[in-house]
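User: What would this chain look like folded?
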Amino acid sequence: MAYDLEKMNRIWKEAIAHIAKDGWPTRDIDEAIADRIYSLWLRETEEIWKLSGHRDRDPLRYALEETFEQHYGEEDGAARIVIFTLLLECRARREGQVRRGRPEA
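Assistant: Here's the prediction, encoded as structure tokens.
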């Protein structure tokens, strides 16, 4: 998968700027929402994790999209989706939750 680093940097900076313009007063709430979504994703993907050593990230992304767009609308929700998609990906990697060795199948 090829990544356009310039585009990714621009999207990240736009998301941060959008959130920061109001000082992000809902940060604690947003973090709690993201944490609940992450914990649920870990539970829901536990079986495939045990079998393959990998977790499907799509359900995590979809849950973030659905939840934050419902709470904040498209523009405000999108900024939070960008931020938490990256932060939760980093968290999952740090915790060893997205890949564990090679799949056996």
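Residues 34-100 form one domain. If you want, I can go into more detail on any region.
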